[in-house]
Amino acid sequence: xxxNLDTLATALYVTTDDLLKERxxxxxxxxxxxxxxxxxxxxxxxxxxxxxxxxxxxxxxxxRHARAHLxxxxxxxxxxxxxxxxxxxxxxLLRRVTRILAxxxxxxxxxVWIVDSTPVECGRSRETVKRSDLAGWVCTxxxxxxxxxxxxxxADERQTLLDLLAAEPHILAARPGQTLIGDKNYFGRGSENxxxxxxxxxxxxxxxxxxxxxxxxxxxxLPQVIESVNETFKGRLDLEQHRGRTPGGVVARVMQRILxxxxxxxxxxxxxxxxxxxLTAYDH
Length: 284
What we know:
Helix content is 47%, strand content 12%. The chain is built from eleven helices and five strands.
Protein backbone atom coordinates (compact mmCIF):
# COMPACT_ATOMS: atom_id res chain seq x y z
CA UNK A 1 0.00 0.00 0.00
CA UNK A 2 1.23 3.49 -0.83
CA UNK A 3 2.35 5.27 2.32
CA ASN A 4 2.05 9.05 1.96
CA LEU A 5 0.07 11.96 3.37
CA ASP A 6 -2.82 11.56 0.92
CA THR A 7 -3.36 7.91 1.89
CA LEU A 8 -3.13 8.78 5.59
CA ALA A 9 -5.61 11.64 5.15
CA THR A 10 -8.03 9.42 3.24
CA ALA A 11 -7.81 6.65 5.84
CA LEU A 12 -8.35 9.12 8.69
CA TYR A 13 -11.29 10.76 6.92
CA VAL A 14 -13.03 7.43 6.26
CA THR A 15 -12.47 6.25 9.84
CA THR A 16 -13.77 9.52 11.31
CA ASP A 17 -16.74 9.66 8.95
CA ASP A 18 -17.73 6.09 9.84
CA LEU A 19 -17.37 6.87 13.53
CA LEU A 20 -19.62 9.93 13.29
CA LYS A 21 -22.26 8.00 11.35
CA GLU A 22 -22.29 5.43 14.15
CA ARG A 23 -21.94 7.99 16.95
CA UNK A 24 -23.35 11.35 15.78
CA UNK A 25 -23.37 12.49 19.41
CA UNK A 26 -19.57 12.82 19.23
CA UNK A 27 -19.80 15.71 16.78
CA UNK A 28 -19.49 19.23 18.21
CA UNK A 29 -22.90 20.60 19.19
CA UNK A 30 -24.73 22.82 16.74
CA UNK A 31 -28.37 23.97 16.55
CA UNK A 32 -30.82 21.51 15.02
CA UNK A 33 -32.06 24.25 12.71
CA UNK A 34 -29.44 26.24 10.84
CA UNK A 35 -26.94 26.20 8.03
CA UNK A 36 -25.20 22.86 7.56
CA UNK A 37 -21.41 23.41 7.49
CA UNK A 38 -19.88 22.94 4.06
CA UNK A 39 -16.77 21.45 5.67
CA UNK A 40 -17.86 18.25 7.41
CA UNK A 41 -16.61 17.29 10.86
CA UNK A 42 -14.65 14.37 9.35
CA UNK A 43 -12.99 16.80 6.92
CA UNK A 44 -12.23 19.18 9.81
CA UNK A 45 -10.46 16.40 11.76
CA UNK A 46 -8.47 15.43 8.67
CA UNK A 47 -7.56 19.03 7.87
CA UNK A 48 -6.44 19.63 11.48
CA UNK A 49 -4.22 16.53 11.43
CA UNK A 50 -2.62 17.55 8.12
CA UNK A 51 -1.90 21.06 9.39
CA UNK A 52 0.04 19.67 12.35
CA UNK A 53 1.78 17.05 10.25
CA UNK A 54 2.98 19.59 7.67
CA UNK A 55 4.19 22.05 10.30
CA UNK A 56 1.89 25.01 9.62
CA UNK A 57 1.59 26.92 12.89
CA UNK A 58 -0.26 29.80 11.19
CA UNK A 59 -3.85 28.93 10.32
CA UNK A 60 -3.96 31.63 7.63
CA UNK A 61 -0.85 30.27 5.90
CA UNK A 62 -2.17 26.74 6.23
CA UNK A 63 -5.47 27.55 4.55
CA ARG A 64 -3.66 29.37 1.72
CA HIS A 65 -1.52 26.28 1.21
CA ALA A 66 -4.56 24.00 1.34
CA ARG A 67 -6.40 26.10 -1.28
CA ALA A 68 -3.39 25.89 -3.58
CA HIS A 69 -2.54 22.20 -3.10
CA LEU A 70 -5.34 20.24 -1.42
CA UNK A 71 -8.49 20.98 -3.38
CA UNK A 72 -8.58 17.35 -4.49
CA UNK A 73 -9.19 16.42 -0.84
CA UNK A 74 -11.17 19.44 0.36
CA UNK A 75 -13.49 20.97 -2.28
CA UNK A 76 -14.58 23.60 0.26
CA UNK A 77 -12.26 25.37 2.70
CA UNK A 78 -13.45 27.97 5.23
CA UNK A 79 -11.84 31.31 5.95
CA UNK A 80 -9.43 31.46 8.88
CA UNK A 81 -11.95 32.79 11.49
CA UNK A 82 -14.40 30.03 10.66
CA UNK A 83 -11.72 27.35 10.74
CA UNK A 84 -10.45 28.63 14.08
CA UNK A 85 -13.95 28.67 15.56
CA UNK A 86 -14.62 25.11 14.40
CA UNK A 87 -11.30 23.86 15.82
CA UNK A 88 -11.89 25.43 19.22
CA UNK A 89 -15.19 23.57 19.45
CA UNK A 90 -13.70 20.24 18.38
CA UNK A 91 -11.13 19.12 21.03
CA UNK A 92 -13.43 16.39 22.37
CA LEU A 93 -13.98 15.04 18.88
CA LEU A 94 -10.22 15.12 18.25
CA ARG A 95 -9.67 13.28 21.52
CA ARG A 96 -12.22 10.60 20.73
CA VAL A 97 -10.85 10.02 17.24
CA THR A 98 -7.32 9.84 18.68
CA ARG A 99 -8.43 7.16 21.14
CA ILE A 100 -10.21 5.14 18.42
CA LEU A 101 -7.02 5.14 16.34
CA ALA A 102 -4.81 4.27 19.31
CA UNK A 103 -6.93 1.33 20.44
CA UNK A 104 -6.92 -0.19 16.96
CA UNK A 105 -3.12 -0.47 16.82
CA UNK A 106 -1.16 -3.58 17.70
CA UNK A 107 0.81 -1.71 20.39
CA UNK A 108 -2.17 -0.45 22.42
CA UNK A 109 -1.94 -3.60 24.56
CA UNK A 110 1.76 -3.16 25.37
CA UNK A 111 2.43 -3.93 29.03
CA VAL A 112 5.13 -1.25 29.42
CA TRP A 113 4.41 2.49 29.39
CA ILE A 114 6.64 5.53 29.80
CA VAL A 115 5.57 8.80 31.41
CA ASP A 116 6.93 12.35 31.17
CA SER A 117 5.91 16.00 30.96
CA THR A 118 7.17 18.93 28.92
CA PRO A 119 6.49 22.69 29.03
CA VAL A 120 3.97 24.17 26.59
CA GLU A 121 4.21 27.94 26.18
CA CYS A 122 0.98 29.87 26.69
CA GLY A 123 2.22 33.44 26.27
CA ARG A 124 5.15 35.82 26.26
CA SER A 125 4.22 38.38 28.91
CA ARG A 126 5.72 38.00 32.40
CA GLU A 127 2.36 37.27 34.02
CA THR A 128 1.28 34.81 31.37
CA VAL A 129 4.54 32.92 31.53
CA LYS A 130 3.91 32.33 35.24
CA ARG A 131 0.78 30.44 34.24
CA SER A 132 2.31 28.51 31.36
CA ASP A 133 1.17 24.92 31.08
CA LEU A 134 2.77 21.52 31.20
CA ALA A 135 1.77 18.77 28.84
CA GLY A 136 1.98 15.44 30.65
CA TRP A 137 1.69 12.18 28.77
CA VAL A 138 1.75 8.42 29.17
CA CYS A 139 2.65 6.45 26.06
CA THR A 140 3.91 3.08 24.87
CA UNK A 141 7.59 2.52 24.16
CA UNK A 142 6.76 3.14 20.48
CA UNK A 143 5.44 6.60 21.38
CA UNK A 144 1.72 5.82 21.01
CA UNK A 145 -0.16 8.27 23.28
CA UNK A 146 -2.23 6.45 25.91
CA UNK A 147 -3.23 9.34 28.18
CA UNK A 148 -2.35 13.02 28.36
CA UNK A 149 -3.28 16.25 30.12
CA UNK A 150 -2.55 19.98 30.28
CA UNK A 151 -1.90 21.37 33.74
CA UNK A 152 -0.57 24.53 35.33
CA UNK A 153 3.19 24.84 35.42
CA UNK A 154 3.22 24.45 39.22
CA ALA A 155 1.30 21.17 39.17
CA ASP A 156 2.93 18.13 40.76
CA GLU A 157 3.84 15.64 38.02
CA ARG A 158 3.12 12.73 40.35
CA GLN A 159 -0.38 13.95 41.14
CA THR A 160 -1.04 14.68 37.48
CA LEU A 161 -0.12 11.10 36.66
CA LEU A 162 -2.49 9.77 39.33
CA ASP A 163 -5.25 12.05 38.07
CA LEU A 164 -4.68 10.84 34.49
CA LEU A 165 -5.09 7.22 35.54
CA ALA A 166 -8.07 7.99 37.78
CA ALA A 167 -9.87 9.74 34.93
CA GLU A 168 -9.90 6.54 32.87
CA PRO A 169 -9.94 3.57 35.26
CA HIS A 170 -11.07 1.18 32.50
CA ILE A 171 -7.63 1.47 30.87
CA LEU A 172 -5.98 -0.12 33.89
CA ALA A 173 -8.81 -2.55 34.59
CA ALA A 174 -7.85 -4.47 31.46
CA ARG A 175 -4.11 -4.33 32.19
CA PRO A 176 -3.15 -6.19 35.38
CA GLY A 177 0.55 -5.94 36.09
CA GLN A 178 1.26 -2.89 33.94
CA THR A 179 4.82 -1.51 34.15
CA LEU A 180 5.33 2.25 34.10
CA ILE A 181 8.76 3.81 33.55
CA GLY A 182 9.43 7.41 34.59
CA ASP A 183 12.29 9.67 35.56
CA LYS A 184 13.45 10.68 39.05
CA ASN A 185 10.66 13.27 39.37
CA TYR A 186 8.14 10.49 39.94
CA PHE A 187 9.59 9.50 43.31
CA GLY A 188 7.41 9.43 46.41
CA ARG A 189 6.24 6.66 48.71
CA GLY A 190 2.64 7.87 48.68
CA SER A 191 2.27 8.07 44.90
CA GLU A 192 4.13 4.80 44.37
CA ASN A 193 1.84 3.06 46.87
CA UNK A 194 -1.21 4.40 45.01
CA UNK A 195 0.18 3.11 41.74
CA UNK A 196 0.91 -0.28 43.30
CA UNK A 197 -2.67 -0.48 44.58
CA UNK A 198 -3.80 -0.09 40.97
CA UNK A 199 -1.53 -2.94 39.86
CA UNK A 200 1.19 -0.71 38.38
CA UNK A 201 4.88 -1.32 38.98
CA UNK A 202 6.78 1.96 38.73
CA UNK A 203 10.37 1.77 37.53
CA UNK A 204 12.47 4.91 37.93
CA UNK A 205 16.14 5.75 38.49
CA UNK A 206 17.48 5.50 42.01
CA UNK A 207 17.75 8.90 43.68
CA UNK A 208 20.81 9.94 45.66
CA UNK A 209 20.71 8.39 49.13
CA UNK A 210 18.17 5.71 48.17
CA UNK A 211 18.70 1.99 48.32
CA UNK A 212 19.28 0.58 44.83
CA UNK A 213 15.92 0.08 43.12
CA UNK A 214 14.99 -2.97 41.00
CA UNK A 215 14.83 -2.84 37.22
CA UNK A 216 17.93 -0.71 36.72
CA UNK A 217 18.90 -2.51 33.51
CA UNK A 218 15.56 -1.56 31.94
CA UNK A 219 16.17 2.13 32.58
CA UNK A 220 19.38 2.56 30.59
CA UNK A 221 17.65 3.43 27.28
CA LEU A 222 14.92 5.46 29.05
CA PRO A 223 16.36 8.96 28.56
CA GLN A 224 16.80 8.39 24.83
CA VAL A 225 13.26 7.01 24.45
CA ILE A 226 11.65 9.92 26.33
CA GLU A 227 13.75 12.52 24.52
CA SER A 228 12.87 10.90 21.21
CA VAL A 229 9.13 11.12 21.92
CA ASN A 230 9.49 14.71 23.10
CA GLU A 231 11.49 15.55 19.98
CA THR A 232 8.71 14.17 17.80
CA PHE A 233 6.20 16.42 19.56
CA LYS A 234 8.41 19.51 19.81
CA GLY A 235 10.79 19.23 16.88
CA ARG A 236 8.65 17.54 14.24
CA LEU A 237 5.13 18.62 15.30
CA ASP A 238 5.97 22.10 16.67
CA LEU A 239 4.35 21.62 20.07
CA GLU A 240 6.16 24.68 21.44
CA GLN A 241 5.12 26.89 18.50
CA HIS A 242 1.40 26.14 18.57
CA ARG A 243 0.44 29.87 18.59
CA GLY A 244 -2.67 29.36 20.70
CA ARG A 245 -3.71 32.54 22.51
CA THR A 246 -6.63 31.33 24.62
CA PRO A 247 -7.12 28.22 26.76
CA GLY A 248 -9.43 26.77 24.12
CA GLY A 249 -6.95 27.57 21.38
CA VAL A 250 -4.06 25.95 23.23
CA VAL A 251 -6.08 22.79 23.92
CA ALA A 252 -7.16 22.50 20.27
CA ARG A 253 -3.61 22.93 18.98
CA VAL A 254 -2.12 20.44 21.42
CA MET A 255 -4.85 17.96 20.45
CA GLN A 256 -3.99 18.45 16.76
CA ARG A 257 -0.44 17.32 17.43
CA ILE A 258 -1.40 14.34 19.56
CA LEU A 259 -3.85 13.31 16.83
CA UNK A 260 -1.17 13.68 14.15
CA UNK A 261 1.31 11.46 16.02
CA UNK A 262 -1.34 8.86 16.80
CA UNK A 263 -2.60 8.85 13.20
CA UNK A 264 0.93 8.29 11.88
CA UNK A 265 1.56 5.39 14.26
CA UNK A 266 -1.87 3.93 13.44
CA UNK A 267 -1.32 4.12 9.69
CA UNK A 268 2.27 2.86 9.88
CA UNK A 269 1.07 -0.07 11.97
CA UNK A 270 -1.71 -0.98 9.54
CA UNK A 271 0.55 -0.66 6.49
CA UNK A 272 3.36 -2.76 7.97
CA UNK A 273 6.00 -0.04 8.31
CA UNK A 274 9.12 -1.00 10.31
CA UNK A 275 9.23 2.19 12.45
CA UNK A 276 5.81 3.07 13.81
CA UNK A 277 6.64 6.61 14.97
CA UNK A 278 8.25 7.68 11.70
CA LEU A 279 6.65 10.79 10.15
CA THR A 280 8.96 10.89 7.14
CA ALA A 281 6.34 9.66 4.66
CA TYR A 282 3.82 12.29 5.76
CA ASP A 283 5.56 15.55 6.63
CA HIS A 284 6.03 16.90 3.11
